[in-house]
Design a protein that fits this description.
Oligomer: single chain
Distance between the termini: 47 Å
Largest sheet: 8 strands, mixed
Radius of gyration: 23 Å
Shape: globular
Strand content: 15-25%
C-alpha cells in the first residue's frame, strides 16, 4: 500500500483567538483530512501563560498544549458535526504587543520529522518567514505552498511613515516568499503581486452559517417572512476594519438616508471613538458589543453593510451571504469572489452606496441555490485548494534537494541566486530571532537550544 501523502499546515494563530489565521487553517485541516486520502497535521503556536493572558479572550488560558488541543477539537467538532482525523502539533511562539501578532521562536520546521516532510502549507508565508532562522523550507519539504491571508501593505500605510514602510515591506515580503515557497495562493487580488502566485479564494464558511441560510430559504418557501430587521455591520471595532469608511459614508449622505437605521456590533481599541462618532450623526446608528456572527440575534437582519477594503477576503461577508442576506460592499478586488452571488451588490462611490442601500432595504434577498451554497462551503474551498496547489501533479515530480542548507555548487544561476538569498536571510535573522526557552521547548517536544543568546529588540521590524 502506498504511503499517504503528508500535508503539514503551519499557521500564525490558534483558538481561542478568533482571528482568521486561527479559524481558516483549522477548517482547512479538517476538510483536507476528512476523506482519509492524505495525512494532515496542523501546526499552531504555543504561548507562555503571560502571553496567553494578553491574547486569548474571556481569561481563557491553558496549562499544557494537550489541554489547548482538546479545546480546539471540541470547538471544531461543534461546528462541523464530525470528528476530525488530523494531528495537531505546536511550535514555540511569543506575542508581540508592538504588532499585535504572534511570532515564531526558533526553527519551527522541527515540528515535523524529516521522514514526514512532504508538503508544507504556510498560512501567512511572509509572517512565518520574516524571522525564520532554521532549516530552509524548500529543502526540508518537497513542496512548500504559501497562502496569503493579509494585506499587510494596507495596514502599514496607516501607520507613521506608512508609505515608506509599505514600500520596504513590499520588497521584504516578495524576497522571503521567493526564498521559501515553491507556489503561492493569494486569496484575492487585494494582496501584493508575488512570485509564482495564483489568485483563488480557498476559504469556506463555517457550516453553521449555511444551516442558517437553509432555514431562511425554508421559511420563505413556506410563505413566512425570513427577515424582519434592517441593516447592520459586525467586525472588530478598530477604525481600519471598515468603521472609518462606513461612518464617513453615513455622515456624508445623511439627507439621502434619513430612514436608515444601522446597528454596529464589535469590540476593540476604538470602541469609544466609534460610539462617539455615531452619536453625532442625525440618522440612527446604535453601537453594541461584539458577538458571534452565528448568534440568533443576527439571523433576522436583511442587509449587511461592509465598506471595508483592508480585508483580503472578508469572512463576515461570506457568512452574511451564506445566511441569505443582501450584502452591500465596495467594488474592490477583495470582493471579486462574492460578485458571483446575486445578493452581493457593489458600489463605486457615495451615490452608488446610497442607491444600493435604499434598494436593498426595499427588496427581498434571492434565495440561495444549492450550487451557491456549495460554492461557499468548505468542501468547495478544499476542491479549489487542491486544484490551485497542483498537489497531485507536483508532489510526485519534486524531490528533496541535497542536504546542503544554502549554497549550491551547480552552475544554475537562478538556483545560486536563490541559495545566496537564503544564506543572507539566515545570517541576518541570526541577529534578530529570539530562541524559545527550555520550558517552551519541553512543552512542545522541541530540542532544547544549547545556548541561549540575547539579540537586539525586533520592535523596529515590519
Amino acid at each position: 500500500m502506498d504511503k499517504k501523502k503528508h500535508i503539514a499546515i503551519f499557521t500564525t494563530a490558534s483558538l481561542p483567538w478568533l482571528t482568521g489565521t486561527a479559524v481558516n487553517p483549522l477548517f482547512r485541516a479538517a476538510y483536507l483530512a476528512k476523506d482519509g486520502v492524505r495525512k494532515v497535521t496542523l501546526v499552531i503556536p504555543w504561548l507562555k501563560l503571560t502571553d496567553q493572558e494578553l491574547v486569548y479572550p474571556n481569561k481563557l488560558t491553558f496549562d499544557s498544549p494537550s489541554e489547548q488541543e482538546k479545546y480546539v477539537r471540541q470547538w471544531l467538532e461543534e461546528r462541523t458535526g464530525f470528528k476530525s482525523s488530523f494531528d495537531i502539533r505546536f511550535y514555540p511562539g511569543r506575542f508581540s504587543l508592538h504588532k499585535r501578532s504572534i511570532l515564531a521562536l526558533g526553527d519551527i520546521t522541527e515540528a515535523i520529522p524529516d521522514d514526514e516532510a512532504d508538503v508544507a502549507v504556510l498560512e501567512e508565508p511572509e509572517h512565518l518567514t520574516w524571522y525564520h532562522h532554521g532549516k530552509r523550507w524548500k529543502i526540508k519539504f518537497r513542496l512548500v505552498i504559501g497562502v496569503v491571508h493579509t494585506n499587510y501593505l494596507e495596514y502599514v500605510r496607516r501607520e507613521k511613515n506608512g508609505q515608506l514602510q509599505a514600500f520596504l515591506l513590499k520588497y521584504v515580503n516578495s524576497w522571503v516568499i521567493n526564498i521559501y515557497c515553491h507556489r503561492v495562493i493569494r486569496l484575492s487580488a487585494a494582496t501584493q503581486e508575488l512570485p509564482r502566485s495564483v489568485i483563488c479564494n480557498i476559504h469556506g464558511v463555517n457550516p453553521r452559517f449555511l444551516n442558517i441560510g437553509m432555514k431562511k430559504r425554508e421559511q420563505e418557501q413556506n410563505g413566512n417572512q425570513p427577515f424582519t430587521k434592517g441593516a447592520y455591520y459586525i467586525g472588530k471595532m478598530v477604525w481600519s476594519k471598515g468603521y472609518k469608511e462606513l461612518l464617513k459614508l453615513l455622515q456624508d449622505n445623511q439627507k439621502e438616508l434619513t430612514q436608515l437605521e444601522v446597528d454596529l456590533y464589535g469590540s476593540g481599541e476604538d470602541s469609544d471613538q466609534v460610539e462617539e462618532a455615531a452619536e453625532k450623526l442625525d440618522i440612527t446608528v446604535k453601537v453594541h458589543p461584539g458577538r458571534d456572527h452565528a448568534d440568533p440575534l443576527f439571523h433576522d437582519y436583511k442587509v449587511f453593510l461592509n465598506p471595508s477594503t483592508t480585508d483580503v477576503v472578508c469572512t463576515t461577508t461570506a457568512e452574511a451571504l451564506a445566511m441569505g442576506k443582501i450584502v452591500i460592499c465596495a467594488n474592490h478586488p477583495s470582493n471579486d469572489f462574492f460578485k458571483q452571488f446575486p445578493n452581493c451588490r457593489t458600489y463605486d462611490d457615495d451615490e452608488g452606496f446610497v442607491n444600493e442601500t435604499c434598494r436593498a432595504l426595499q427588496d427581498q434577498p434571492a434565495p440561495l441555490t444549492d450550487d451557491q451554497m456549495h460554492e461557499l462551503s468548505w468542501e468547495a474551498a478544499t476542491e479549489r485548494f487542491l486544484k490551485s496547489a497542483h498537489l497531485d501533479d507536483e508532489v510526485k515530480k519534486l524531490t528533496k534537494k541535497p542536504s546542503k542548507l544554502y549554497m549550491s555548487t551547480s552552475f544554475d544561476l537562478s538556483r545560486n541566486l536563490d541559495d545566496a538569498s537564503a544564506f543572507i536571510h539566515h545570517w541576518g535573522t541570526g541577529f534578530l530571532t529570539k530562541q524559545p526557552d527550555e520550558e517552551q521547548c519541553k512543552d512542545v517536544g522541541f530540542p532544547v537550544p544549547l545556548k541561549r543568546q540575547s539579540y537586539p529588540s525586533r520592535k523596529w521590524a515590519f
